[in-house]
Amino acid sequence: MEKKSFHLFHSNVDAIAKWSSLRDEDFAPATETEKESMVEEHKSVSYWKDAWRRFRSNRVSMISLFVFLVILLFSFVGPYFIAYSYDEQYREAAKLFPFEKTDVEKAAQALLDAGADGVLATSMLSGSQTYIKKGDYYIVGKNGQTYAFRFAKSKEKSVLVLESDQEPALWIVDQKALISGSYEKTPVEMMDTPAEGASELKMMTSFFPHVFGTDSAGRDLLARCMYGARVSLIIGIVAALIVLVIGSIYGAISGLAGGAVDFVMMRIVELIYSVPDVLIVLLLQVVLKEPLQKWFDGAQSGIVKSMSDLGVGVVSIFITFALLYWVGMARIVRGQVLMLKQQEYVTAARALGVSGRRIVKRHLIPNCVGQLVITTCLQIPSAIFLESFLSFLGMGVSAPMASLGSLCSDALDVLQNYPYRMLCPAIILTVLVLSLNLVGDGIRDALDPRLKK
Amino acid sequence: MVFYTLKRIAAAFLTLVLIATITFFLMNAIPGSPFMTDKSTPEQIARANAKYGLDQPLAVQWWRYMTNYLRGDMGVSLKMQEGTDVTTILFHQGKFQLSIRVGLWALLVAVLLGIPLGCIAAYNRGRAIDSILRVLTTFGVAVPSFVFATLLLMIFAVELKWLPVLSNSLESPAAYVMPVLSLALYPSCYIAKLTRTSMLDAINQDYIRTARAKGLKTGKIIFKHALRNSLIPVITYLGPLSASIVTGGFVVETTFSIPGLGKYFISSILNRDYPVIMGTTVVLAALIVIMNLVVDIAYKIVDPRITLTSKED
Q1: For position A246, what pLDDT does the model report?
Q2: Taking a C-beta distance cutoff of 8 angstroms, is the pair B183, B249 a contact?
Q3: Interchain proximity B158–A415, CB inside 8 Å
């Protein structure tokens, strides 16, 4: 309320300055609508709204936030829009350059250009399936008609061509012959109606490009980059949360308890702080691998099972963070608690007989939150950084899983011939870390303008 | 001052003992025996274990390591160069020297590049050159060193063919360029940022205004008044910097296949060559710890405003 009257006073300064020109009406009491309009101008702004307003006015942070959201979409939604998955190997499609087509795809594309309705090259199917199993199938042609057929034997390395323009026909062509151009069309015998339980064979009418090319095992690099970015992001966020939980609890206890407890706890922090982390981290990665694997293999359900899906490499990175990287957070939280503890309002609350728990809840936590958010946000890119470093040295995530670091590591050996395999994940990684850093800086400036450099 | 120094040295020694202990127990926690191969029989493994004293209780082994280290004896390699003294492997085969040389060059480049860039940015605050430098340093801090290293490789070795692809034993000066640059990227950008910030702080101080008012030349103000005072944060950073150079060393030595300590450390872990793991860890950790110690003491000498007895947080 004080704010409003303060404002009222000021907004009339101009009018008061020109007091000689005031008329009698100017001294009439304000009407209800006038009062209302005054109130509206001064809606109380919450801490977060205020921070968001400051964040929004920072162009660099907003652009970085946008870039970060794009990468988030790329890694979490992107996989639904591409035809390949991160772990499927297509032997025919190994070592392709970006947008390059395999020989079969090229030949099949020529057939499509020549008027074929659709093709099905057995080596291009997902799951590195190189044959059509025997059984009943049906397909639906361009004219809407259903063609049913049966393979008595499994067909390997062949291409099915559907031409339904002039005369409904399904041809089977040997893949090698198709590439060389001199092939024989073997007609596939048609049936009237599909048999019970026949499965539909999807004929391709176009080929999804390998946008980033493929790796040596014939895995699509775009799919792997999406997956790798996802793994990197998950590692970054989870690791930051682990650090947040352990560090803030430890720091808060140390700061609140004070005295001898604080002294001992801080000496422990100092000791961990002085240990060169990377040496220990590298050792930990090797030490944790086998016991974790055993633990995961034994698990049937629950949290352990869901952790085992993440893979040993990822979980051991989490453990590393839980063991070594919380000390920075603990120091910051302790510093905050120590500072806040001595504030007058806390003393006042104490004098009024407020319980310790309530002081923590009402005074310490709300005042710490900004600092916690800032530190956690800046922890994410550094976790991603560490993970990529470990994976690059061959100690983090292992195949068929991928992270941006392990993709770069895989590409190192073939750098001379296939530079794009390094470039794609490296650029994504750099942009991701950069945008997260800038968003973190923006959040820091928005939440705590005093820290602004 | 003497008391403080002694206290810091004791703390540094304690840290080293702690690191050696952690390493000892961690490496013994790596599953399997270093002598386990596809062909080896249990008797062979037992014999090999007995030969190197690996059959004794862990506490006994640990005590032996500690006492031997105090005497400067780092034991012999179990696998990678069987029977060779670890001291010989680390110090007399050029590994340590290679890593140190690259690291020191990187340190030099980082300092000589970072500080002037920071000064330039601070002095031209708000102008185009400041913005350009800010973008560059922000990028430099965000780009992982291996990305930058491979980028250099791709451009200068593969495409332009100006520099050798493999640096190997760093025979020619040209072989140093890429490893040193990729190692120095992060620290030089970080130092530039630090210098800019503290320089801006210093420039706004009253004594700078006084210096300006009495008509001193800009160069003199910057170098004599502002820079000296703004270098303190940079000196504090030299401790973490040495750690980041050791870390970066792993990546750079892998990328450019330099047979240095970092590369050897990784293969010793994978080979479970216990004495080599211990030796490399202790040597690398000692480098970092000593650097931190020197910085801590130098810091107090450089900045007399800091009282020696107060406990910093």
Answers
A1: 92
A2: yes
A3: yes
What is the 3 state secondary structure string of B111-154? HHHHHHHHHHHHHCCCCHHHHHHHHHHHHHHHCCHHHHHHHHHH
pTM of the model: 0.79
Where are chain A's structural domains? 102-200, 221-451
Is A426's CB within 8 Å of B15's CB? no
CATH number for the region A221-451 comes to 1.10.3720.10
pLDDT score for B309: 47
| Predicted pLDDT of residue A39 | 64
CA atoms within 13 A on the CB side of B163: 25
Nearest one of B60, B87, B52, B48 to B71, comparing CA atoms = B87
| Residues A334-390: tens digit of each pLDDT | 888 888 888 888 889 889 988 888 888 888 888 888 888 888 888 888 888 888 888
Whether residue A314 contacts residue A235, with contact meaning beta carbons closer than 8 Å, is answered with yes
The yes/no answer to whether this complex scores an ipTM above 0.90 is no
Angle at A362 between CA A359 and CA A365, to 5 degrees: 95
Which pLDDT band, with edges at 50, 70 and 90, does B310 fall under? very low
Q: Which residues of A touch B (CB under 8 A)?
A: 271, 274-280, 282-284, 286-287, 290-291, 331, 335, 381, 385, 388-389, 392-395, 405, 408, 412, 415-416, 419, 422-423, 426, 429-430, 433-434, 437-438, 453
Residues of A in contact with B139 (CB under 8 A): 430, 434
Chain B residues touching A319 at Cβ < 8 A: none
Q: Which residues of A touch B313 (CB under 8 A)?
A: 331, 335
Integer Cα distance of A282 and A51 in angstroms: 39
- Residue A57's identity, in one-letter code, is S
